[in-house]
Amino acid sequence: MLTSEQQQDHFASLQGKNIIITGGTTGIGLATTILLASKGAKLLIFGRGQSELNNALKEIKKFSNKVFGLTADVSVKEDVKRVFDLADRELGEIDVLIDNAGLGAGGILDEKYDEQEYVVQTNLIGYLAFARGAVQRMRARREGHIVIVGSMSANVRSGSSSIYVASKAGIQGFSEALRKEVNSLGIRVSLIEPGEVGTDMNSLSVEEQHRKQAMLKQLKAEDIADCIYYVLTRPKRVDIVEVRIKPLLQII
Predict the structure, then answer these.
(1) Once rounded to an integer, what is the mean pLDDT over residues 17-43?
(2) What are φ and ψ of residue 75, in 5° steps?
(3) How confident is the model at residue 7 (pLDDT cuts 50, 70, 90)?
(4) For the domain bounded by 13-245, which CATH number is listed?
(5) Of 100, 151, 187, 239, which cross-links 182 as Cys (Cβ 3.0–4.6 Å)?
(6) 45 vs 37: CA distance, rounded Å
(7) How do residues 113-152 score in pLDDT, each as one tens digit?
(8) How far apart are CA 52 and CA 24, in angstroms?
(9) How do strand 187-194 and strand 67-71 relate by DSSP bridges?
(10) 3-state helix, strand, coil in the chain (%, to 5)
């Protein structure tokens, strides 16, 4: 049985922590937002669609009123600035960035050049832009945590999704290099690489996703949210570098 002092050392509280979640209106981002809101965090989320944002805020406010939202696109430089401007006004200091907004994509023969470019801008350049903005704000305090949501596709490297694989392999390399760059500033970087997850990005119907989850061949978005919560609540001395989380019966 842990004493209260040991419990305080073992679990870091998210109560009052200021957190930005990119792509926080759907899928893994929304599940994470709901969980962290229920734990007392103060959140800023955004997504590309107004209806998704409205639905997300309605759901989140069942648990907390400490959430701010806007529509924005991580691939647009002006939108990145708008998000951080709002964060500076409403959150003040940033304790955590969850770099999560991303798009699915097929192979190079399946996508046009403009589509390929947009995926890379979103899945790679957008991640870099938000990490940079977060580090700029965290380094003065010599404290902060960046959680990067990648994909096991970076390791599986399916031939049917070469564009997606390229972007996620880039994220994998970036995460490792970023950690080495900013650890000395007191900033932790954790890479979460999920396997197959049932979200709006998945091509299967909701019913088919539920069936796969019951067969232990697909994760729920909430499973990744739980993992992110675990990573964020370790003591300061703990730096969780990388987590790969997959369905029990997913064949890799």
Answers:
(1) 96
(2) -85, -5
(3) very low
(4) 3.40.50.720
(5) 187
(6) 11
(7) 999 999 999 999 999 999 999 999 999 999 999 999 999 8
(8) 10
(9) unpaired
(10) 45, 15, 35
Task: With H, G, I as helix, E, B as strand and everything else as coil, classify residue 71.
Answer: strand
CB 241 within 8 A of CB 190: yes
Number of Cβ atoms within 10 Å of the Cβ of 245? 15
167, two tokens: 């972007």
Q: Work out the burial of residue 65: count CB atoms within 10 Å of its CB; fewer than 13 is exposed, 13-18 middle, 19 or more buried.
A: exposed
DSSP annotation of 205: -
* Three-state DSSP class for residue 97: strand
- Structure tokens that stand for 189 in this block: 């970087």
Reading the block at residue 74, the tokens are 């991580």
Average pLDDT value for residue range 171-187: 97
pLDDT band at 159 (very low <50, low <70, confident <90, very high): confident
Q: Please, which residues bridge with residue 243 across strands? A: 192
Enter the tokens of residue 3: 């004493």
The helix/strand/coil state of 151 is: coil
Does residue 231 contact residue 190 with C-beta atoms inside 8 Å? yes
| Beta carbons within 8 Å of 91's beta carbon, 6+ residues apart | 18, 20, 42, 44, 68
The pLDDT tens digits for 80-106 are 999 999 999 999 999 999 999 999 888
Provide the residue ranges of all domains of the chain, joining segments of one domain with +: 13-245
Q: Shortest CA distance to 123 belongs to which of 40, 32, 23? A: 23
Indicate if the pLDDT at residue 178 is higher than 80. yes
